[in-house]
């Protein structure tokens, strides 16, 4: 009986461990390529945002320049419950509005050698379902926010080849809450829910490499690699309002006040992009990309107090593939219109492997934007992108404490709206 109850306690403590393994990879940073849904981003090399997208592209910038981007993100994610062991509501809109943006700077040291820095975020998301929704024993709130600084350099080797490299410093903050099902523990029937909260931050480090090929004056090919970034979150699992039987078992098992260590890795990624200028007005752009979510899906967890328990939580993620196609049309000397679409495969294979702290499926992006050359030194732009994250069906068998949860997301979309300005000097 004690061993059975101890297993239940492990489930409770692991309930608040995040499944951010398929975390939303943000191509969107408020930069002008939001208008192409990211298509061509490693080959465009048209402004200072190339310092982060492909550092080799900085060699195409004739002058030093700065790009400032302000972006609003609206997440509309609504779960439709088909079945839940312990009842509860649908949780309403688990998303909301998130302000974001970025700052990019390139310094032209010589005609062939440039240095730059990009600041912003390319990874993270958050959900908030409230305390009374059907999946409250899985998660009530979850957020992973990141802020990165990526300095780098680019060098033109010859007329058709440029190389670039940079390193990343990434600050990440994780928080997650889940309800504790006191009433499902023998001897605690009728007690209200407790709560488990985990919260911590960490610094991670990585690097990025870039190559830009220019076989013709009207054609560019860009290849980029971004390394994985290792993060470790450490916190004492903050248990609140748990029942006396549950507290007693925690005390006897040595897990009372357990320290929770979560090792997480933001995955490595490769992207191949192309840009071709058809004529003075039209250009086409495209991407093919790969992200290493399968290796990331195995997260190492340690619960330690007077005793220690270690686990590997296998999220069973698949590697993902990214495809994008876009176009740009200069319909007047000072005006440039962009449009694009992108498709990313799902990192989760099967409804039984998807958890409500990250309701993502395959992703479809549709973007458009416009830029206006105010004068020779200043360009301003507006862009919008719609992301359809699929129905993200969930069919979880959570056992006696979490219960079963089944349903899908009738609405699962993200809207990106951006204003940016490029200043050349």
List the helices and strands and how they pair.
Elements (H helix, E strand, L loop, with lengths): L1 H14 L34 H4 L11 E20 L11 E13 L4 E8 L4 E4 L12 E16 L4 E20 L13 E23 L2 E8 L2 E8 L1 E3 L3 H10 L5 E8 L2 E9 L4 E10 L1 H4 L1 E7 L3 E7 L5 E13 L2 E10 L18 E11 L4 E11 L5 E4 L1 H4 L1 E21 L1
Antiparallel strand pairs: 1-2, 1-21, 2-3, 3-5, 4-5, 5-6, 6-7, 7-8, 7-10, 8-12, 9-11, 11-14, 12-13, 13-16, 14-15, 16-17, 17-18, 18-19, 19-21, 20-21
Features:
single chain; 425 residues; mainly beta; Porin; 14-stranded antiparallel barrel; 4-stranded antiparallel beta sheet; 5 helices; 21 strands; elongated; disordered N terminus
Explain what this protein looks like in three dimensions.
The structure is a single chain. By secondary structure, the protein is mainly β. The chain has one domain (2-424): Beta Barrel (Porin). It is built from five helices and 21 strands. The strands form two sheets. It has a 14-stranded antiparallel beta barrel with strand order 1-2-3-5-6-7-8-12-13-16-17-18-19-21. The chain has a four-stranded antiparallel beta sheet with strand order 9-11-14-15. The chain is elongated.
